[in-house]
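S1.2 Input.
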Amino acid sequence: MTTVIKRSKIAAAMAGVMALTGVGLASANDNVLSQLQAEQTQTNRANAASQERVDSLFEQSSDLLADYRAVVAEYEALKMYNDHVQRLVDDQNATLDSLQRQIDGIEETRQGVVPLMYKMIDSLDEFVQLDIPIHREQRERRVERLREVMVRSEVTDSEKFRQIIEAYQIEMDYGVGLIAYEGTLNFEGQDIAVDYLHVGRIAFLAQSLDMQNAWVWDNDNREWSRVDDSFLNPLTQAIRMSRRQTAFDVVRLPVFAAENAE
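S1.3 Output.
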């Protein structure tokens, strides 16, 4: 009996030890599991935080890429615009160079044009003196005004030249058409109110306002000559034609023919 009791006690003791050991193991396993779960949770959180950083970095990189592409596009546009502006600047510089060359030559041009203008005025004056005396006083005053304007510093050379050309154009107009105007004729020391009539520069005539006398200009002798009374009616008709008071028709007028040159 004693041996059996001892074995039973040993077995009971073993069972107790085993039970205690199992309780210890269970407690240890719970601690390990809790630790593992905590670590897993921490890992998950770390992974989530890492993913957030990755997502953030991806978004930043996407934004940077978009910014880069925008900068590249802007650069290309600016480069194209700068190239365009440079071409404009080059063209403007070429224009400025051309203008500068013209400006440099202005003084030489003026040195040639100014004497030319004086010669043109002198020639015009001489022509007026030698021509039939159509609007003689007006033409002489026009020449005098040209001489005055030549010494006025506020008038540009181009304006002076324009006025000279205009005077020449007026002289050309005198040689065209049938034109009548009123004036005063000095004949044999007597001033007579007349109607002047010139047929271009072919003939220059005058008729008293009472239509009783008429004269023709002799440019060779530089004097007026009385015309035959047979020309009075044709001359009256020609004056009316020039003023559009009657229809144009053929009329007979006295004309001094040019002599043949020897």
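S1.4 Remarks. The mean pLDDT is 84.
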